[in-house]
Amino acid sequence: xxxxxxxxxxxxxxxxxxxxxxxxxxxxxxxxxxxxxxxxxxxxxxxxxxxxxxxxxxxxxxxxxxxxxxxxxxxxxxxxxxxxxxxxxxxxxxxxxxxxxxxxxxxxxxxxxxxxxxxxxxxxxxxxxxxxxxxxxxxxxxxxxxxxxxxxxxxxxxxxxxxxxxxxxxxxxxxxxxxxxxxxxxxxxxxxxxxxxxxxxxxxxxxxxxxxxxxxxxxxxxxxxxxxxxxxxxxxxxxxxxxxxxxxxxxxxxxxxxxxxxxxxxxxxxxxxxxxxxxxxxxxxxxxxxxxxxxxxxxxxxxxxxxxxxxxxxxxxxxxxxxxxxxxxxxxxxxxxxxxxxxxxxxxxxxxxxxxxxxxxxxxxxxxxxxxxxxxxxxxxxxxxxxxxxxxxxxxxxxxxxxxxxxxxxxxxxxxxxxxxxxxxxxxxxxxxxxxxxxxxxxxxxxxxxxxxxxxxxxxxxxxxxxxxxxxxxxxxxxxxxx
Length: 483
Known about the structure:
The protein is of the alpha/beta class.
C-alpha cells in the first residue's frame, strides 16, 4: 500500500516510519524542508519518497500522491505559541483536507488527545476542533486519542525526567494531583499501524491508554523508583499558572511557550473511556513503570530515534531553515580559526559530530554553562536541550542552544544557527578542508548584529571569544581515541 505520512520528521512520525516500512508499505513523507530529512539508515529505503509541503502555505500539486491508500495526520502546533496555535492547527487541517481529497485515499488516521472532560484546555480544545474538521471531510477518519506518551525523547517523559533527576525535594503546584492515563510509545505505534485500512474503525474515534490511572505526583514517584531515587514531593495550593509555567521552564528543558500550554493541560483529567480496539488488535497495554524501564533501555543503548526537542516549534516560530543556511558576510562580525590537522582527520570529524550535549564544547565548559544560564534567564532555550544522539547529527536537530542547518559528513561540514536570545543572528561553522596535500580544521563564528545593541554585545564578548574559540579549535584537532 502507498501511505502518506505527515509530521515525518516529528517525534511520532520518525518512529512510525520504520514500522510502516517493515510492513512492506510505500511511504510518501511530507516534510516542510527536504534538507531536514536524513539520508542514511532506514531513511535511504527506496520505498520512501518526499513531498515538500507546508500546510500553512501554498499547497503543492497532488499528482505525486494521487494513488495513495491512506494518510496519517500527525501535525501539531502546541509549542509554537501561547495564543495562535489553535488557528494554526485549524488552518493546517483544512489545507491538508484540500490536498488529500484530490487523491484516492480511503482513510485518514489522526493521533490526538483524550477529550472527555466538559472543560478542556486550549490545547485539547484545538485538538478536538481539528478532529471535527477532518471528520467532516469526504474521506473516513479514524481518530486515536492518547494522553501522556511515555517514551525516550517524548516531551512529557523528558520533563518528568528533568524534575525527578534534578530535584530531591519538589515544591509542586496542586495540578500534580490531576489524574492521567499514560501510554507507552510502543503501544501508540501498534495502534497507529493496526487501524490502517481497518474498515470498522472508519468514522470512529478511540481512546488509547495504558492500564494505570495515575496522578502526575504518582508518575514522578514511580519514575523515581525505576531510577533508584528517593524523592519527596510537597504540594502547595498557592502556585499560580504563571509561576507553575516558570517552574517548569527553569527546571526542565522545555520552552516557556510549551510550559504554559502544558500547565494549561495538566489541570484537566485525561482518562480514557474503555473500548474493544486494543483487544481486536491483540494489544496488551504496557504498565507505566515498565514503559519507563523500556525508555531507559533505549537511552542507555544510545538508540533514541526521535526527540520532541528536535521539532522546530520547540524553540522558535521561524520554521524555515533555508532562510539561514547561506551565512551572510556583509555587515557581519566574524571569528575565524584554522588549525592544521596533524593526526587522523576522521578523528577530528568525529569530534565535530560529537560536539555539545554531555560531550560539551571542548573548551571553557563553565563559560558555556554561564551563557546557557543567562540565556535561560532571558527567556531563551538555554543549554538543557542537549542533543538526541551522542554521535549522530541530522539537519534540523538541536545542539544545546544551536540548531543544525547543515550536517554534511561527506563534505565534512557542520553549520549551526543560534537559537539563544541575541541582539542579532549567529552562525557557527566547522569544516575540514584539504589544501596543498594537508588537512585543516576551519572554524568560523559569524554574527550579524541588530542595531547598536548588537554591536555592543559583540565587543563585550570579544575577550571571551579569543579564549573559547581558540581553545575549542585546538581541542577539536586532538585525537581523543589515543588519549
